[in-house]
Input
Amino acid sequence: MDLELKDKVVVISGAAGIKGSIGETMLGHLVNEGAIPAVIDRNDRGFEYVEEIQKKGIDATFCKTDVTDPDQIENAVNTIAKKYGRIDVVINNVGVNDGVGLNASYEDFMWSLKLNMVSYFLVVKHALPYLKSSKGNILNIGSKVGLTGQGGTSGYAASKGGVLGLTREWAVDLIKAGIRVNAIIIAESFTPAYAAWIKTLENGEEKLKSIINKIPLENRMTTPDEIAHTALFTISNKSSHTTGQFLFCDGGYVHLDRSLLTE
Output
């Protein structure tokens, strides 16, 4: 299926993660569709990724940005808009489950909010005039933690709950401008960061098996590729009448009846 994303300028935050991360995987799929990715991230890997993309004959931009710094976000979006003269899509993909719990300091909690939620607001705020001109759309990457809780991660849970609230609010706010706004909710996906977390646990392999056994569809984790496929379909015109939605790419983890899991 041609998703008609060729030459669309897609601003994507958090896409300079290590190979196999959700952001990096989405970046690769955008390139395969011929989109023009504009990466906002704090990691220097972004330079390497954009160089690789350009060698394929596809334009791309990397703006090294600390997304907890409002000025840096504004500068990044302005740089992208100046280069291309348009922005067609924003994908807010930043997310660090940072373990900022009730025992954390005020400063750590606020930092978590700035990273995981406020950055979404600022990217959209500065991209909005261009999205209105292109009648573009916004996709927020969320987490089941914003709905279910997890324990020990108040900052991340509050942020991801807020991201869902912003998704619905923006869908209402921007409907007269013809701008669609949706969110993808991720549950258990075996990314490099997830693998690293498992290795920190005393009984990591047992914990991993326990988690996998609780995923109803096929008792397996969602792959980053599956998340990327859902994301690209959602930002494409093939989803032209979908807005204000929370799309669960999770193998039924959040909603399906637990009786499915009895052996």
User: Anything to note?
Assistant: Residues 66 and 244 are 28 Å apart (CA to CA).
